[in-house]
Amino acid sequence: MSRAGKKRKLDKSRQDRLYFDSYSDVTIHEEMLADHVRTNAYRTAIFRNSDSIRGKVVLDVGAGTGVLSIFCAQAGARKVFAVEACSIAEQAEKIVKQNKMEDRVEVIRGTVETVELPEQVDVIVSEWMGYALLHESMLNSVLYARDRWLKPGGLILPNRAELFIAPVSDPVVEDRLYFWYNVKDQYGVDMSCMADFAQKCVRNSDIAVNTVAGEDVLSHPARFAELDLRSVTVEELRSVGGAFRCESFGSAAVNAFCVYFTVSFPCPDGPHALVLSTSPFQPETHWKQAVLYVDRPEEVVQDTPVSGEVRMYPSEDSARHVCVHVDFSIGNHKRQSKTFSIPDWTSDAHI
Q1: Can you list the positions of beta strands (E) in 177-321?
Q2: Is 127 a catalytic residue?
Q3: Does the annotation count 136 as an active-site position?
Q4: Do residues 290 and 260 lie in contact, with contact meaning Cβ atoms separated by under 8 Å?
Q5: Phi then psi for 130, rounded to 5 degrees?
Q6: What are 27-52's pLDDT values in tens digits?
Q7: Is the pTM higher than 0.85?
Q8: Residue of 84, 102, 116, 136 marked active site
Q9: CA distance 22 to 8
Q10: How many angstroms separate the CA atoms of 16 and 112, rounded?
């Protein structure tokens, strides 16, 4: 039961404990493994890089159930250090033994910032991405591992991430708002006065994690940020973003923006990198898309420009959680500005 009161900032140790505890339940690991797009992309990337993995030492940051560690062992790794901070590490050890990999895969319980490895590694693999890419901020741990344990010129899987934004017209939102005008026809009670309240509730400052249909996207997506994991710094992650510009496909009302990401794996056996995409135009993943609802929808027609800037940064309440600030203009309409965040366990309901 939630308690009324002011939201309190969590100290870092409590943030970390709550974060790691969330990965101790089977549900989240079931969801990730059931995400075929995600898991198969990693498996394919690992085996395509087998020449760089065979006979080498691998570090799996945030190993979870250890599936990526086992993929690396199957690809010929001499040794895999599977570092996992939460209690799922106990299950990972059982999985490793069940697959007769205990001679090559060593599960180490702890954070990558605190464990000691017996040697430097040739490869780092990690599935660190959160909603809107940076929610949960596990990337900081990957960068720490890179700087502390990766040999010069070592391989990082994935080694590149990109962020995209596009205007959308979400019909579900409009249906929910117009619902209150229809109550009288259904039940003989006029509830149209609820429309303003509903609008405040629906078009709030939460980052909604939803599946966006491709037909609801109103323009070609625009890339607004790129991260090279071989060189990006923790300091640079304090503010990630950039400018964007799109042109609308046709006539509709822009009532939200969709933010999604891709990550890329180097593929030495082909001319192009292997890309894991969370685009609404690609098969769905468990990340879905981050949807940002604007306060004032604006109508667009063919080729109406939609432009602005996006900035992503850690929340003041919890450094593991991301905020997204968008300044934007739609055609000749007045510039709008809004800051969004994902509702989470920083609330008093969990304190």
Answers
A1: 208-210, 222-228, 240-247, 252-265, 274-277, 289-300, 305-314
A2: yes
A3: yes
A4: yes
A5: -115, -175
A6: 888 999 899 999 999 999 999 999 99
A7: yes
A8: 136
A9: 19
A10: 13
